[in-house]
Amino acid sequence: MKAALYRYRQSPRKVRLVANLVAGKRVAEALKQLEFLPKRAALPLAKLIKSAVANAVNNLKMSADHLIVKNLTVDKDVVLKRFRPRARGSASRINKRTSQVRVILAEQVTNKK
Q1: What is the biggest distance separating any 2 CA atoms in the chain, rounded to whole angstroms?
Q2: Per-residue pLDDT for the chain (113 aa), expressed as one digit of tens each?
Q3: To 5 degrees, how large is the angle CA 101–CA 56–CA 31?
Q4: pTM over cut 0.85
Q5: What 3-state class would DSSP assign to 86?
Q6: I need a surface site. Which of 5, 13, 19, 93 has the fewest CB within 10 A?
């Protein structure tokens, strides 16, 4: 199941630090880790994963206990360009970067022998 977050107002470089931490883990473990992570991107990523879990449970009738974070990609989105006054009547550009985050959940395959 998929979920996406567009135009998140934080640089993709900073969001990727958090995303790489939870990619490939079980959903419960990823949410627990994001709960105690002191980064600003942890809360929106936790909400995004919860949204994807809700999509999987309600739409595809999957069990939330067997879901893993299969793929978590962070790409750049639009860049807001602002200007700051500088010395002698000039100006310098400030880039306010935004991120685009996509999460894909998959059911964990268990081998019973």
Answers
A1: 76
A2: 999 999 999 999 999 999 999 999 999 999 999 999 999 999 999 999 999 999 999 999 898 899 999 999 999 999 999 999 999 999 999 999 999 999 999 998 776 65
A3: 55
A4: yes
A5: coil
A6: 93
